[in-house]
Design goal:
324 residues, mainly beta, six-stranded antiparallel sheet, four-stranded antiparallel sheet, 2 helices, 26 strands
Length: 324
């Protein structure tokens, strides 16, 4: 009888722990009811303010921010009308990440994160996490930690999610904060080993923080003309940095540069590469897949396009492959 009671008690505790993981008290979680199967094709023949192109497993994704959707395809060169909609009930999304089983989308203007699971006929909404800071902008799946990192662009907070073993459900494990960035716009973050780089627009600087605690370790000022950094990407022995505006939010300053170090950038030592990407716009987020680097270039005078580029030492080769 005692063994039976202990068994029942153990089950009750396990259920309580599971409920807290699925429904943490600090967060409102709603089971989604709308599904977007692969049979629903993209109806737009051009992209509008796209933020990210990436590949997860064997599937390509484009976060088509201006059209409030995420689309996907098995071929990156397929006409846009042949891409399918992964998620279409969004507001200004900026990023998607996945571990091959679960996918998280930063639904920026709705201040939430939505999880999806892959099905034979497309993707199904799984969970909606409301009130993820303010305007969550960027999400990364860190394979080393088996965690999703989601950045709230206006509150200086990093939300850490983990998929439950053997399940398609994710839970919020932890919220880490950088108090120095509260109220300051930060579009993305870059994980490099045990460090995280956070470019702050209004402060015109790059924060270097500890990945595990988000404690600030260093701050590097950058020229005001480059303050509106979108993303920092380490390629070979240099940092490639995409820029959307200057410190005064002037979009005419959009560009892409590369520099040897953050200290060199602080001293004004960098190379402008915008001409190689068309010269009349700038790349946004950068992703690596299929043996090269890819970005979406937001053009001022023409349609946005996808660019593939390879780097070998000082040589940078850029090729437009589609997406317009």
């Amino acid at each position: 009888m005692q063994k039976k009671r202990n068994g029942i008690k153990g089950i009750a505790i396990a259920l309580l722990v599971l409920s807290l993981m699925l429904f943490p008290p600090s967060l409102s979680v709603v089971r989604a009811e709308m599904f977007y199967p692969a049979s629903r094709l993209n109806s737009y023949n051009e992209l509008q303010a796209p933020a990210q192109v990436s590949k997860i497993g064997d599937t390509y994704f484009i976060v088509d921010s201006g059209h409030n959707q995420v689309i996907y395809s098995k071929s990156i060169g397929a006409p846009l009308g042949q891409w399918s909609i992964m998620a279409g009930n969004l507001s200004g999304p900026h990023a998607v990440a996945g571990d091959g089983t679960v996918y998280l989308v930063a639904d920026t203007e709705n201040h939430r994160v939505i999880s999806y699971r892959k099905r034979a006929d497309g993707f199904q909404e799984q969970q909606i996490f409301e009130s993820i800071g303010e305007r969550p902008h960027y999400v990364v799946y860190d394979r080393a930690e088996e965690r999703f990192y989601v950045w709230s662009s206006m509150t200086g907070e990093m939300y850490l999610f983990r998929r439950m073993e053997g399940s398609t459900w994710v839970c919020l494990e932890q919220i880490l904060a950088v108090p120095e960035l509260m109220g300051s716009y930060v579009r993305s973050f870059t994980i490099e080993g045990d460090l995280i780089y956070l470019p702050c627009v209004v402060q015109s600087c790059i924060y270097v923080a500890d990945k595990h605690t988000m404690q600030v370790l260093a701050v590097y000022p950058v020229p005001p003309s480059l303050a509106g950094i979108v993303q920092i990407t380490g390629i070979e022995n240099r940092y490639y940095i995409t820029v959307s505006t200057d410190q005064a939010w002037n979009q005419d300053c959009a560009t892409i540069i590369r520099t040897e170090s953050f200290q060199a950038l602080s001293e004004g030592r960098y190379e402008d590469l915008n001409g190689l990407f068309g010269g009349d716009g700038a790349p946004y987020y950068i992703s690596r897949f299929d043996g090269a680097w890819y970005t979406l270039v937001l053009k001022n005078q023409t349609r946005p396009c996808i660019c593939r580029f390879e780097v070998s030492g000082d040589v940078l080769e850029v090729k437009k492959i589609g997406g317009s």
